[in-house]
């Protein structure tokens, strides 16, 4: 007699219910993927808030360890200090920065026109520019200046809204990060919660290390650029230094974009100044690449340049400037998660650590 158990056939209702559950799961995954693609900018703004919360919480934790203050009081003191410092900095620097920003906006069109006139002297450039002008004239809406004005104001208001959104998200996350971590862990099976908590902690440490290293590098680049341009007798050195510091937040594209206004102003001052300005910016990038980066390497992930550039392009296509800005920290976080969840847990390769440092908390 056969001892094999005979499977009990499912009735029609059970099969229908099982099919409905599977279809609902597939539909939920598809809707989630569609939501992620369509709301990429919002999700990136939320990630910006997470970075801000990491900054607030890191400073507050350090203050808590050094002074013994309660965590809430340390966080309140941290936020008060940062708001006061930024406010005093704006109050002290606003007149100079505003004046130089206005002058830069006034001078750049003339510098661009002067560069255009110089390029027109080369063979082939004049015909290329003429053909480009004809093509631009054929494009729809080419003469609608009101559309340009509307786009300017909408983008400016959108940028202000994004900044406010990131600020509030960062504050809420920093006030009670445990609330959101516990909520995330509830979505994970009980047997995986300890590992998920470890992964989230290591990811936060990586973001903390990267952010600290990046802020140090931005400050050094801003100071060196301002001092160097001042010594080269290039006008508007302060605003150009601020631009260089801010754009250095974005690897690859930022340093290239920051040199453009400096070169245009140097071209107005004299063609010989262009060479010295390019040399200055190249020297500062060398200091960052071969001096700052090795010094700060223990705090940052060693991200492959090709991977980082690919992520910048992909996120730039999906979400525009926000994607390019947050591509680096997103890549850092993704590398930690992939290494721990996929390489270590699924593949079992726990002895290899090709991702570099994960930051020191």
| Oligomer classification | single chain
Helix content: over 70%
What's the alpha carbon Rg, rounded to whole Å? 26 Å
Q: If you average the pLDDT, what whole number results?
A: 78
Uncertain spans: 139-157
Question: How is this structure best described in words?
Answer:
It is a single chain. The chain has 361 residues and is mainly alpha-helical. It contains twelve helices and no strands.
Describe the secondary-structure layout.
Elements: H1 12-38, H2 40-67, H3 71-119, H4 125-138, H5 145-175, H6 177-185, H7 193-231, H8 237-247, H9 253-269, H10 271-295, H11 305-319, H12 321-346
Helix pairs in contact: 2-3, 2-5, 2-7, 2-12, 3-9, 7-8, 7-10, 7-12, 8-9, 9-10, 11-12
What is shown here, in short?
The relative contact order is 0.10.
Primary descriptors:
361 residues; mainly alpha; 12 helices; 0% strand; globular
């Amino acid at each position: 007699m056969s001892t094999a158990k005979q499977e009990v056939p499912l009735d029609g209702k059970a099969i229908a219910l099982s099919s409905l559950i599977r279809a609902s799961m597939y539909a939920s995954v598809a809707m989630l993927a569609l939501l992620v693609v369509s709301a990429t900018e919002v999700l990136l703004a939320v990630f910006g808030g997470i970075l801000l919360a990491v900054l607030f919480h890191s400073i507050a934790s350090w203050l808590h360890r050094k002074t013994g203050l309660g965590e809430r009081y340390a966080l309140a003191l941290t936020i008060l200090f940062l708001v006061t410092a930024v406010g005093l900095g704006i109050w002290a620097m606003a007149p100079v920065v505003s004046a130089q920003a206005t002058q830069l906006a006034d001078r750049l069109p003339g510098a661009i026109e002067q560069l255009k006139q110089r390029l027109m002297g080369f063979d082939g450039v004049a015909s290329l520019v003429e053909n480009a002008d004809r093509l631009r004239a054929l494009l729809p809406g080419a003469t609608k200046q009101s559309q340009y004005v509307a786009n300017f104001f909408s983008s400016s208001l959108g940028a202000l809204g994004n900044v406010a959104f990131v600020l509030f998200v960062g504050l809420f996350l920093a006030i009670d990060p445990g609330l959101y971590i516990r909520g995330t862990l509830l979505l994970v099976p009980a047997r995986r919660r300890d590992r998920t908590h470890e992964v989230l902690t290591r990811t936060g440490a990586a973001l903390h290390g990267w952010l600290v290293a990046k802020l140090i590098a931005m400050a050094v680049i801003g100071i060196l650029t301002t001092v160097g341009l001042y010594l080269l007798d290039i006008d508007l050195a302060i605003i150009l230094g601020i631009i260089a510091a801010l754009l250095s937040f974005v690897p690859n594209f930022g340093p290239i974009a920051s040199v453009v206004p400096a070169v245009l102003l140097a071209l107005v001052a004299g063609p010989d100044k262009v060479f010295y300005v390019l040399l200055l910016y190249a020297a500062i990038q060398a200091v960052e690449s071969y001096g700052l980066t090795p010094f700060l390497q223990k705090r940052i992930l060693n991200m492959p340049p090709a991977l980082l550039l690919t992520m910048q392009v992909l996120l730039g296509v999906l979400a525009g400037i926000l994607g390019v800005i947050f591509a680096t920290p997103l890549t850092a976080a993704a590398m930690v998660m992939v290494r721990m969840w996929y390489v270590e847990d699924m593949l079992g390769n726990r002895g290899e650590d090709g991702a570099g440092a994960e930051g020191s908390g």
